[in-house]
Design goal:
By secondary structure, the protein is an alpha/beta fold. The chain has one domain: Ribonuclease Z/Hydroxyacylglutathione hydrolase-like (Metallo-beta-lactamase, Chain A, 4-Layer Sandwich), CATH 3.60.15. 18% of the residues lie in helices and 28% in strands. It has four helices and 14 strands. The strands form two sheets. It has a seven-stranded mixed sheet with strand order 6-5-4-3-2-1-14. A seven-stranded mixed sheet has the order 7-8-9-10-11-12-13. Helix 4 links the parallel strand 12 and strand 13. The radius of gyration is 16 Å and the shape is globular.
């Protein structure tokens, strides 16, 4: 499985000639859906789903998401399928399991929206905007590192609870270059403490997962 970090909260996964994209939001620049066979969307916030991108995508695109997002995709040509916590399915050659139900608490005046996390091939877990702890072992974690709903302490505690062999930063477009350097340092400290591969991939950088 090849993992490529795209802008902010978007990642691209490739395996056996198939392509799956997670959370192609409005911060994700360029043709992020080119060649995609399937898309997973964790929740309805604009930095995770760009409806216009999906409207312009192939009608053969398979889209898997929660009910709240699906309600906003009625004009999208791709096939939209609703999933919930506890579901399992296969798409684009990947086995996917669904964990979680709700977005982390954010602004006091904002309602809490649905949020589902995705575990791919029992290897890679993408929690969306939540610190969901699946009741299974997670080898590779995409860990949110910067958000209005997130504290540094919570991010570190999440890594120590999951204890993945590998963890890579996501949700990090809100940082300046100075902020990204801080993220790099925090992740490096935790990597040394846990003896794990914990770091930030640059936009466009790829890594291969076993």
């Amino acid at each position: 499985m090849k993992l490529t970090k795209l802008d902010h909260a978007c990642v691209r996964l490739e395996k056996n000639g198939k392509v799956l994209v997670i959370d192609p939001g409005t911060f994700s620049k360029g043709p992020v859906l080119d060649g995609a066979d399937a898309v997973l969307i964790t929740h309805q916030h604009f930095d995770h789903v760009d409806v216009e991108k999906l409207k312009a995508a192939s009608p053969d695109l398979a889209i898997w998401t929660c009910e709240g997002v699906a309600a906003e995709l009625t004009e999208v040509p791709g096939k939209v399928q609703v999933v919930r916590h506890g579901d399992g399915f296969e798409t684009a050659g990947f086995g996917v399991k669904v964990f979680g139900e709700w977005h982390a608490k954010n602004h006091p005046d904002m309602s809490i929206v649905q949020n589902v996390g995705f575990l791919l091939d029992d290897e890679l877990f993408y929690p969306g905007d939540a610190l969901t702890v699946p009741d299974v072992e997670v080898s590779t974690l995409l860990v949110p590192t910067g958000a209005p709903w997130l504290k540094l302490m919570e991010m570190v505690e999440y890594l120590r609870t999951i204890r993945p062999a590998r963890a890579y930063s996501t949700h990090d477009a809100l940082y300046s270059e100075i902020g990204l350097a801080l993220v790099d340092n925090w992740l490096r400290m935790e990597a040394e403490k846990q003896g794990a591969d914990i770091r930030r991939l640059a936009v466009g950088e790829s890594t291969t997962l076993s």
